[in-house]
Amino acid sequence: KVTIVGSINLDTTLYLQRVPEPGETIRIQKLITSGGGKGANQAIAAQRLGAKVAFIGAVGTDDVGQQMLNLLRAAAINVDGIAQLADHTTGQAFITVDEQGENRIMINAGANTAFTPEQVRQSQPLITTSDFLIAQFETELKSTLEAFSLAKKAGVKTILNPAPAIASIPPELLALTDIIVPNETEAEILTGVHVYDEKSAQLAATKLADSGVSIVVITLGKAGVYYQTASQQGLIPALRVKAIDTTAAGDTFIGALASVLQPDFSNLTEALLFGNQASAITVQRLGAQDAIPFKDEITPD
Ligand code: ADP
Questions:
Q1: Distance between CA 11 and CA 291 in Å, rounded?
Q2: Phi/psi at 98 (nearest 5 deg)?
Q3: Binding of substrate: at which residues (predicted)?
């Protein structure tokens, strides 16, 4: 069982020729709405790839919140830990994509940053009955800290996806983290090492491991994934596929990893390979949650 403490957004993507100049009005070509937020994406991924999933987070009491709750419920995710906060809007991301494929993202964090350690404590049973607890940085740090400390006390393994990137992670959070999974950019911002290949990933991973995390996993886009534990390290190459939209690749990878990893980490390399296989499917499809594959789409090798 996997529990996610994280963000829930409604994503609205506007496809347009170009973004308007100040004062200018333009027509857009296409509008697509979908469920989003790193937390919700990872929850959907873990569930589709075989885990039982519970979610801890918050939405507003607005229509969008109801819509997002329904979406997660329909995906068979336990939503008992999702608070509905009356004084807050549900998180939303507004994304423009121009003809060059360039995107711009504006986020209303809303309820995502309003849920408190107290609300996390109310969901303690969801955490303590899990194998893994996963968090990102789209919610308040103090709530993540509370969740990780409840997990640790119960022997539940913790996975931190330090996204969006921040320059330094509080040592007390790192001390509660079993596995950290940054992408190249996040690893670089955290360590100051320009990460782009196996050697640079190794350098960055060593720095992160020095801060007390036992397993470091750095996703390297089409190069695959670099991992480092106390006893082993290496690069697991990505599958060679034609990527058309890499949105949610990292979220798929994390959900996949958590859904197959044994709590004693004994099958780490197989779990990372599974993560590569799952996210290679995501990058070949348009969209975020829509692109995330189901377990039976992944062919054993
Ligand atoms: P993020 O989406 O957080 O930036 P990455 O770009 O590192 O994360 O992608 C996560 C994982 O998705 C990679 O480790 C890899 O397994 C897979 N992936 C990403 N891009 C490609 C690609 N072009 N071809 C194959 N696999 C990919």
A1: 14
A2: -95, 180
A3: 9-11, 37-41, 138, 251
HSE on the CB side for 169, CA within 13 Å?
33
- The radius of gyration of the chain's CA atoms, rounded to the nearest angstrom, is 18
Which one-letter amino acid corresponds to residue 61?
A: T
Three-state secondary-structure class, residue 179: strand
Task: Decide if 251 is catalytic.
Answer: yes
Which residues form ligand 1's pocket by a CB distance below 6 Å?
183, 219-222, 224-225, 238-239, 241, 243, 246, 249-250, 253, 276, 279-280, 283
- 88-101 pLDDT tens trace: 999 999 999 999 88
Q: Which tokens sit at 188?
A: 């670089």
Q: How far apart are CA 78 and CA 127, in angstroms?
A: 12
Question: Of 9, 5, 136, which is closest to residue 62 (Cα–Cα)?
Answer: 9
Q: State the ipTM, two decimals.
A: 0.98
- The size of the chain, in residues, is 301
Q: What is the pTM of this model?
A: 0.96
Q: Is the pLDDT confidence value at 23 over 70?
A: yes
**All domains in the chain, ordered by first residue:** 2-8+37-90+110-296 (3.40.1190.20)
C-beta separation of 251 from 218 below 8 A = no
Placement of tokens 């799952």 in the chain: 278
The catalytic position among 251, 290, 296, 301 is 251
